[in-house]
Design a protein that fits this description.
alpha+beta, Glutaredoxin, elongated, 2 domains, 5-stranded mixed sheet, disordered N terminus
Amino acid sequence: MNAGWKFAALGGLGGALLAYALVFVTSNMGWMPVSGPAVHRYLLDHPEVMVEMVQALQAKDAQKEADTRQAAVDKLGMKAFLDPRVAYVTGPANAKNTVVEFFDYNCPFCRASTPAMKKFYAAHKNDTRFAFIEYPFKGPESVIAARAAIAARKQPGKYVGFHFLLMEGDEITSDESVMAAAQKAGLDIAKLKTDMQDSSIDLEIARAHTLGDAAKVTGTPTFIINGKARDGQIDDKKLDAMVKGET
C-alpha cells in the first residue's frame, strides 16, 4: 500500500498544523516559551520532537483506518468474502482457520507476500479455508491477469498453480506474459482465451470491487484471517501470528 500522499500532506498544510500544535502543546506544558525566536531555536535543537509527532499522527491515522476497516468487515460477515461469485474458494467448509486475500498481480507487496502465502497454502490446503479475491486496480495489465485467472477456474485444479505463477513471475506487462504463465501451469490456452471473453468475468471483478469498497479495502494486499482484517506485506512469521490471532 502506498502512503506517499500522506507524507505529501504532512509536508504542506499538515506540517504547518503540526508546528502550530507543537508550539501550543509544548508551551502549555511549560516545555518551551512561545516567542518566535525561542520556538525556532527549540525546534533546531530538538528536531526529533517534530519527527515523533509526525510518527504519532501517522500511527493514529493508521489505527483509525484499521478500526474502520475491521468494523466494516464485522458488519459484512465472513460469508460475504467466501462467496464463489467474487472469490476462488477452496479448503474444508468447516475449517478452523480461514484466510482471505484481496490482491493485484502487479502489486509489489502482494508479490513480496507470495512466498509466505504459497508455503502456508501448501501446508494447510487441507485444513484451512482459502478465498482468493482478484482485485485489479493497477492498470490494464492487472485486469488482463485477473481475467485470465478467473477464466482458469473453468479448468479444474489449475487455478491455484496459475495464481502463484502469475505472482512469482516478472511484472505483467502484456498478454504474452500471462499466457506464458498459463502454458507453464498446464492450462488449455485456446479454452482459456475463449473463456476470458465471458462477460461474467467483468461482473465478478465488479462484485469484488464493490465488496472491497464495502469492506474499506484501500489497497493490496489486504488479508482477512479468521475474521480479522490486516493490510500490507507479510512474511512467514507475520502470517503465522495473524492465524494465531497474535497481531
